[in-house]
Structure formats: structure tokens, C-alpha cells
Amino acid sequence: MNAVSRSNAYNFGFLDEYAKKEVRRAILKAIAIPGYQVPYASREMPMGRGFGTGGLQLTLSLIGPNDVLKVIDQGSDDSVNAVNLRRFIEMTCPGVSTTTKTAECTLIQSRHRIPERPLTSKQIIVLQVPYPDPLVVVEPSEDKRKTMHGEADYSRLLVKLYEDIVKFDEITISHRYPTRINDHYVIDPSPIPRWDVPKLHASAALILFGAGREKKIYAVPPHTKAEPLAFSDVPFRVEDFRDEQGRRRACARCGCTDSFLDEFVTDSGIKTYQCSDSDWCNEKMALARQTEGKPA
Amino acid sequence: MNKILEVRGMSKIYGPGCPLCIESTGPEADTNLCPHCGSVVAIHDVSFDLFEGEILGVMGESGSGKSTVVKSLYFDQAPSGGEAIFYDRDKQYALFSLNAAQQRWLRNHRFGMVYQNPHLGLNFNISAGGNIAERLLMSDLMDYGAIRERAKTLLARTEVLLARIDDLPKHFSGGMQQRVQIAKALATQPPLLFLDEVTTGLDLSVQARILDLILEIQQELKTAMVVVTHDLGVIRLLTGRAIVMKYGRVIEAGLTDQILEDPQHAYTQRLVASAL
Amino acid sequence: MTPPILQVEAYGKHFWLHEQNKLIPSSHNVSFSVSAGSLTALVGPTGVGKSSVLKGIYRTYLPSAGRILYRDAQGHVLDLVRASEHQILELRRREIGFVTQFLHCLPRQSTLDVVARPLLSLGVSRDEARQRAAEWLSAMNLPERLWSVSPATFSGGERQRVNLARGFIIKPRLLLLDEPTASLDPATAERVIGLIEGLKAEGTAMLAVFHHPEITRRLADQVVELAPLPAVEEALKDFA
Question: Domain holding B262: CATH number?
Fold first, then answer.
């Protein structure tokens, strides 16, 4: 009942159908040209730009009553941003169910992380993007950047990596690692950590990127090559999470040693580490409890 | 000796252009500004050949169009007419019929340019070594160690202190900036190099050493060069042949010693007489 | 009899000075031929255009009239008046040398490198070129301590020897000599005369202008006397 009365106030998915159609067309084009930034008319949303309005418009254009949605921010389903977005979608998309479980969802809107659990071909992940163009750091003119993308001219981006190695003996880019898609366009894969970059490569799920403020949509379609920029003798590597003794750190909660870890400083000033992906961590703990419960 | 570059009837007009532009401009008209439509005829009907390993001088005062010649050939600007053929080993390229990506490929792989203003040739926000790396990365060398070694070799060759390889060019002296520009231009060992007033504005002693360097490089690498300058001393020192330009037209072409000792055109005679 | 290597036919040269609107005659109706292994001397009073003939052959001057037929190493005959710039440059590199009283060279290049340079452009290795440059410089009696210094600081006589060494080093088929012994002391002049005779014996054709009639008598196999220049009007007729 409630849902019906709300739906009288707003169209399903908040956006009007024409706006959704335009976004869907942009998505199709983005899938057709992997890594290419498709411009679209980003609508005003009832929240400030920079709070995930780009990702939200994608989600609202894609979502249907049968979808199961998961919203994450920095790996967590419970942070303020994730909770707000989820509530907004629940409010404007009556009948849609939400979950925190990666395994159960069909659509994920995420900020800064790709879940640890491998995504499937039945799933779509939408990433919120603050800065879509990796060339913006080397070329201020968008007109020139378009030409550079068109000609796959990324040498100036590579010089940045060169300078990084000169200064620090390694490539220090921690997130937004420039990644070449399908041997042509280089994308800014949104502020995901290096850890998540290999997940872009040959992903089973469709990966979409939405930048609300910059009005761009781009995609890494399923089973598409995604290659982080690197030198042949200084290869790309992910975070290794080793302690001073060179041992792989483990999650303080679930004990996992093969997930992306967040660093916390406890009240007593000691550093501890925890899985960034809360669903992954919970799942591991549940599994551990099960095994413990069983007689040996 | 093989031809490396053939330029025929190259022209560049800034502005709308009109049927009277050509006849109303040039050395006889004493202007390059068309009085009828206000267009600037920067160059008109420029033709010359360049052979492998040869240095050709393009001389003239400011406004003669000499820089437009090399900037058009290096694709910094598109000419309004004419053609230029670049002969590269067993291939040949009609430069002005290529698409942007093909032009960029030639620029990065087979041509080099040294500008009067180092801001045009160097990125001042990245290190000297990074500038050279950029050109190597453009030509698809993707090995950091190899890039680093090549940058060091080039800077050593152009007499830039290796200790400064990671410094920003904006902290370099003018002469040093030109050396880094030359090193960058030579990074891909191009068979064709354009030099646009490279020593103008430098101290005389610095000028002399840069010119020495250019000559040494030409002797070592047999690079063909087009040298644009208003300085007769540079023409005498570097070039074997030269063309003289005025108001966008080539008014005289010949062997450099002949142009300096037996100039034919009134303007060249005045130029040579005033230099001696 | 072998055909001459160089045949100058009715060579004429004048300068048109636009600024002063004035015609300056320089050479008029000069004809002669030069054979391999012989030395031809141009004689005549000052201002009769002896150097002008040499420069016209070398194309430092653009001839105004006549033909200059040169038979190259392959036996092809070429009119140097009409030859392309690249043909001239190639001949200068391989076959035709010119020794003047003046030397244009890099003020910062060592004498040894200045002399070796013509060989380098022929593809001779740097070490070998410098070795041969050293041989010529010692044959010219130039003190070894000067070899590493730039000729820019040299006296007239020292510079002249550098110039000669550089002209001789490629053993050109045709050598143009403009007062090659003018500023040499008698002992060095003798050496240079010996070297000229040596080169001639090896087959080089030479066309020379000498300062001293005595040297002309000693070296020349043929003497060409240039006639005084006609009045400007005559030259103009020639021009038309």
C-alpha cells in the first residue's frame, strides 16, 4: 500500500523513463566500445554531486522489480553513504529487495571496492566515479584528451609512472590505477585499490562506471581484457600486506589472509587489520563457526 | 645520396583568403598581409629537396615564413596547400595526406624538432629524463631500465650533467634546456631533424657550443636537418645549401657559399652586406 | 690522347649590385682546358678575374656566361654551370678540391680534425682519417704541438698549410689552387711545391693562380693569360 502511494509521487526508480532510456543507450554504447567514456546528460538527483549520483543513475536505469540490490561503500554495507543510497533506492523502487550478501545480489552499486567473492555472469556491478578521465592529470584540455584517447596516445601517462619509479623506486599509485581496456582505451577504474584492478580483467560480470558530475559512463564488458599500465621490467603488483617479518597479515576478525585489509588503530594505539569487504569477513566467520561446531 | 624530403608548392594562408591574396603579397608587394581580405600569406609556393645527411638552411627575417615551413612539416600546423613527400627507407609518405594518427607516428618515430622556445619542446613539469622517456614511450619502448639507460646516454652525449637527469628543466639554464631538447629530439634516432632558431637568444659562448654539438651529431648520425635561422653565421657554419625567404616566398636558393659570396637577389645582397 | 678533365668555354662572370644599380665585370670570355696530371696556371694583372674563374668552376660564384665541362671519374661529362646543387656537392666531396688563402672552419675544432674532416665525409674511420691528417700536416712542416689547437689562432702561413693539407688529403681529381704559397716562408714553400709535384705525378689535374711568376715557371705545364676586362657596356652585350 505504502509503495503504491509513493509510486504515485515518483516514477519507479525516481528518474523519468526518458532519462532512463538515455542512460541505457549510453550504457549500450559504453559496452560496445569498451573503456570509451560515453557522455550523457547527468540528471539532478536529490543529493549532492560527488555522493554517487553517477552510479545511482546507472543503478536506477538498470534496476527492475526482480532485482536484488547490494550497495557498498569502501567494502562496507553499513557506512552512511551506502545506507543512504540503499534507502533512497528502496524508497523509489518499490518491490526491489536488497541484501548485503554478494552471493545473493543481481546488481551492486559500489564505491571504492569490488567484492572479494568472484562475481558471476548474472551480476552487474556499478562503480561510482569521481574523475572518469585518467588523462586529466597530464592534459587540461578535454578536446585534446579526446584526441589522445582516440589515438591511444598514453605516453604522457606512462611518463607519470616513469617519474614515480624515479622518485620512489616503484609505482606508488594506490588507487585509480590507469588500466588499458581491450588494448585501446585507458580508463580510470574509479578509486578502487590496486588489489581490485586484476578483477576487471576477463570479469564474468558486467562492470559499469558512472560519473555524475563529469557526465560520463564507461564499461568493462564481461570477458574483456583489462591491463594495468606498467613497464615490462617493473610489472604491476597488488598490495602485499606483509608485516615487518615479511609475513602476510591476517584479518583480526576472521583470520583471512587473502583479502584486502583495512588498517585500524585501536584506542591503545596498536595497529590492527580487518577485511575491507564486510560481507566476505562475515561469511568467513560464519564458515569458521560451522567448522568449530562440528565434532572433530 | 638519396632524397629524404621533397617539398612542392607548400603554402599557408591565415584568414579567409581571396583570389587577390597571392598577387597582392610577397617581396614585390613588400608585405605578407593581403590588402583586400586581410589574410596573412605566411608562405606561398615553397619548394625544396633535402637529401640524406644534409643540412639545409632556411634563412630570412621575422615574418618571412621560415618557421611556418618547419612547423608545417612537423605537423604543428596544417598547410593550406602543396605537398611534401618523406622518403623513409623503402617507404614514402605524402605528409599532408596522412591522418592525424599517422602524422603523430611519424613525428614520434621518424622526425625530431628543436624549438627556439624550450617551453614548446619540453614539458617543464616533468624531469629532463622524463621528457626523453616520454618520446621513447611514444615509440613503444616499454622497458624502464632500457628507457633510463637511453636517457642517460643521450644526456651524456648532449653534455648535460647526469646528476641532473631527475631535475625539472625549469631549473636549467637556457643553453642546458636546448641540450635537453636536442637529446629528446634525438631519442628515437630520427633520420630527419628540424631546428627552429635553436640558438637565438642564448649567450654567444653557449650558442657556439650548441652549434658545435649539432655539427658533431650530424657527422656522427648523418641526420638530415632543416635549420631555420636569421643568423648568417649559423647558416655559414652548419649548412651546405640554403634557401632565402622574404614575405613568405623563396627568393633565392643555392649552395651556402655561393649565396654568401655571390648573392643574386637584392634582398640577399643587402642581408649579406649588412652582416659583413 | 686522353680528353681533358676540364674544359672552360667562354666563361664570363659579372656581379649585378641591386643596391647601387651597378654592374661589376669579373671575368670575360675565358676559355682553356685542363688535363689530368698537369698543372695549368692562370696569369694576368690584378683584377683580371683569376680567382673569379676558380670560384666559378667551384660554383662559389654562379657563372654568368659560358660552359664549364667537367669529365668525372666515371667518364661522364657535366656542365658545372648547370649542374644541380647536389651534383656539385657530391663532386666537391669526392673529386674537386679548392685551396684558398682563406680558411673557414670551426673555431673550436682541432687542426687535426679540420684536416681529417673531408675524409670522414667519405666514410673513412675517424682514427684512420686522423692518422692520414697527421701525415699530411707533418709533410706540410706544421709543428706537432699545433695539431690539437684550432687553426683560428694560427698565423697566415700556418693557416695556409692547414688549408693545403685539407685540400690534398682526399687526393682530388681536380684541384683548384688560389695562391697556395703566398704567405709561406721559402723553406715551407719548397715543401709545398714538392707536394704539388707529387700529387700531379699521381694524376691530379690542377688549376692554379700563383703569387710569384717564378713558381708559375717552375710548376706550370700550361699558362693561360687572361685578357683585360672589357668596358661594362661590352659585358652587358655579353650578358644580353
Answer: 3.40.50.300
- CB–CB contact B123 A156 (8 Å): yes
pTM of the entire predicted model:
0.86
Tens of pLDDT, residues C42-60: 999 888 889 999 999 999 9
The amino acid sitting at C234 is E
Same domain for B145 and B86:
no
A interface test, pick of B142, B164, B167, B184 with most A CB neighbours within 10 Å: B142
Please give the sequence-ordered ranges of beta strands (E in DSSP) within A203-288, or none if there are none.
Answer: 206-211, 216-220, 226-228, 261-265, 271-275
Q: Which of A155, A167, A234 sits opposite B144 (nearest CB)?
A: A234
Q: Which residues of B touch A232 (CB under 8 A)?
A: 142-144
B219, pLDDT greater than 80:
yes
- H helices, E strands: number in chain B: 10, 10
Does the structure show a pLDDT above 90 at B209?
A: no
From CA B44, how far away is CA B247, in angstroms rounded? 9
Average pLDDT over residues A150-157: 91
- Number of independent structural domains in chain B: 2
Residues B33 and B56 in one domain: yes
Same structural domain for residues B34 and B46?
yes
Question: Which residue among B236, B253, B258 places its CB closest to the CB of C59?
Answer: B258
Distance between CA atoms of residues B82 and B46, nearest Å:
8
Q: Where exactly does CATH 3.40.50.11310 map onto chain A?
A: 2-228
Name the residue in chain C with its Cα closest to that of B3: C86
Whether residue B80 is found in the same domain as residue B204: yes
**Which segment of A175-189, A216-230, C143-157, C203-217 scores lowest on mean pLDDT?**
C143-157
Nearest to B255 among C85, C104, C107 (CB): C85
Interchain contact B/C (3 or more Cβ pairs less than 8 Å): yes
Contact between chains at B269 and C17 (C-beta distance less than 8 A) = yes
Range of the domain at B25: 3-110+190-275
Fold classified for A2-228: Rossmann fold (3.40.50)
Task: Give tens-digit pLDDT for C86-144.
Answer: 999 999 999 999 998 776 666 678 899 999 989 988 889 989 999 999 999 999 989 99
Residue B213 has pLDDT above 90, yes or no: no
Lowest mean pLDDT among B38-47, B250-259, C94-103, C128-137: C94-103
Neighbours of B99 (CB within 10 A): 9
Q: For residue C29, which of C235, C236, C240 has the smallest C-alpha distance?
A: C235
Tell me, yes or no, if B143 comes closer than 8 A to chain A by beta carbon.
yes
Distance from CA of B106 to the nearest CA of A (A): 13
Q: What is the DSSP letter of B258?
A: H
Tell me, rounded to whole angstroms, the distance of Cα A35 from its chain centroid.
Answer: 14
User: What is the ipTM score, two decimals?
Assistant: 0.90
Query: Are B49 and C120 an interchain contact pair (Cβ–Cβ within 8 Å)?
Result: no
Closest-CA residue in chain B for A149?
Answer: B101
On whether any CB of chain B is under 8 Å from the CB of A170, the answer is no
- B208 → closest Cβ in C88, C108, C121: C108
Q: Cβ of A231 under 8 Å from any chain B Cβ?
A: yes
According to the model, what pLDDT value does residue A294 have?
61
- Distances, alpha carbon A142 to alpha carbons A38, A50, A153, A188, in Å: 13, 20, 14, 15
DSSP letter string over A96-162? -EE-S-TTT-SEEEEES---SSPP-TT-EEEEE-S---GGGGT---HHHHHHHHHTT--HHHHHHHH
The Cβ-side half-sphere exposure at B4, using a 13 Å CA radius, reads 20
Residue B35's φ and ψ, nearest 5 degrees, are: -70, -15
What does the pLDDT read at residue C234? 59
Residues B11 and B105 grouped into a single domain: yes
Dig out the grid coordinates for C193 from the structure. Answer: 711545391
In this predicted model, what pLDDT tens digit does every residue of A111-137 receive, in sequence order? 999 999 999 999 999 999 999 999 999
